[in-house]
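Hey everyone, long-time lurker, first post.

I ran two proteins through the pipeline my lab uses and got sequence/structure pairs for each. Pasting them in order. The first:
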Amino acid sequence: MVSVEQFQQHIQYLKDNGYQTVSLGQLARYVKGEQLLPEKSVVITFDDGYLSNYEYAYPILKEADYKGVIFLLTGFIEDNDQAFNPKAVQYMSWNQVKAMGDVFEMASHTHNMHKLSNSGRGVLSVATAEEIANDLRLSRQPLNNTCYFSYPYGHFSQLAINTLKQQGIEMAFTVTEGAVKIGDDPMQLNRWDV
C-alpha cells in the first residue's frame, strides 16, 4: 500500500524527471511495433476501483496533467456514492467512475472473479472458458467493451488467455515486475508494483 504522501512524491518525481503518461492504446501500438513512444513514458495503473482512487489519486494526477488507468472490478462498483471512510475498503460508484473520465481510462479486472479458488489460485486461472466469457461480457459491457485487461492476483492460464483473446481482449497485464518492450506478448505484459 502506498500513502497519499508517497504517491504525491512518486508523481512529482516522474514530473520532475520528464516522464509522460501514455494511453493503453498507445502502449498496444508500441508493443506491436506500430508506434514509438518517448523514452520516458509510463502507464500509471490501479487495480480494483477503490474509492481512494477517486479521493486521492484522481486530484493528484489531474494537478500533474497526467493520465492513468483503473482496471475495474465491475461487480464491486457501487450504484450510489457513499461517504468516504479512509479506514474502510470501499469501491467507487458509477457516477465517480464517469466523473474521472478526463484523467482515467477504465479497463477490465473481471466482473466478479477477484477471488481465490480452493487451490489458492485466482478463480480466473481455474475457470472454464464459458465462465470466463460470461464474466468478461458482464465486465466489458459498462466499460465500452474495453479490449484491455488485468489478471486478478496476476494468475492466469492458457485457457484464460485464449478465451480473453476470443472475446476481444487485445492486451492483458500480469503482476510480473518489469518494463514493457516492443515485441512482448501483449497478453502477458509486465508491470512495476508500487
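...and the second, right after it:
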Amino acid sequence: MNVSEADKTIEKLYSLGIWPTDPYSEFSQKRFREAIEIFRGLMRHDWFQGLLSKRRVSILDICAGTGIGGVALAKVFLEEGIDINLLLTDIREDDLKLGSKWGSEVLGIDVGYTKIDSRRVHELGRRFDIALMYGSSSPHFDPWEMVRLQASVSECLLDDGIFMMDEGDRRYTIFYRTGYARVLPERIDSEKVLLSLHANYDFRRGTFERAYIDLKNPSEIVLVETFFWGLAELMAITWLFFEDVDIYETIRGRGLILGYKPRRGIKIEDLRKQPRALLS
C-alpha cells in the first residue's frame, strides 16, 4: 500500500527511539498487563454481550505498532472461550513483523499483519467485529484526516461492529495541567539526548509543528505535525459515523472511546476530493 510523505515522517519519528516498541521489554510487558485488565473490565459493557455469545470474533488493530493493544484484547476474548482472528495494521512494517511473531507466541494462534495507512483500511475488503486504535495515536491525525480515518474504519466493520479508541484529553493534561512547552526534553539517558522544539502552527489544520533533535546526532532533524485532541471532539466525530458513542473511563481524562454500529451515511468515497480550504 502507498505510504505518504507524512507517514514516512512518522516512521522517522519512531526511529528516534522516543517510545519503546519492543514487545518483549519490561516496559511493553507492563503496558500489556495493564491493557488486559482494562479489557477485562470492558467486557462488562452491554455492547460486548453480543460479541461474547459468538464463536469467533475478528479484530482489526489499526496504528498497531507491535500490537500490544490488539494482542491484549484478543487474549481476553480467548479467556472467554471465543476463537479470535486478529489482524495488525500500521505503516511501520518492521514493528508489524515483530508484533506478529510476539503475538502468535502469546496467543498460540497465527496473528496476521498488513502494512497499510489507517485511512485506507476499507481497501482490505474485509469486515470485522471490532476495530481498535490503542496507544493514543490520534495526535498523528488532524481533524480532516480523523474524519477520513473514521469513514474508512466504519466501512470495514460489521453492522453491529464496535470502534474502540484508547485516548486521553490533551487539552486538559497538556494545556491546563502542564502548559504547552516550546522546548521539551523528550528523552535523556546515556544513549540519547532528544529534544522537541515548537516550529510552527497551521491554523487551517489546527496542527502544531515540532522539530525533534537528537543532540548526539544533531544533523538529523525530524519535523512532525501534531494535533492535540480533547476527548469531546473525538467522541463527536465518532458520533457522525456510529449510531451511539460511549466512553469507558480508566482514569480521569482518559479512557476507551466506543463507537457502536456504523451508520455508513458518509462514505470514504465522498471525502476523496480535498476541500478548498486546504488547497491554498
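Reply from user beta_strand_b:
Welcome! Quick read of the second one: The radius of gyration is 19 Å. The CA atoms of residues 38 and 250 lie 7 Å apart.
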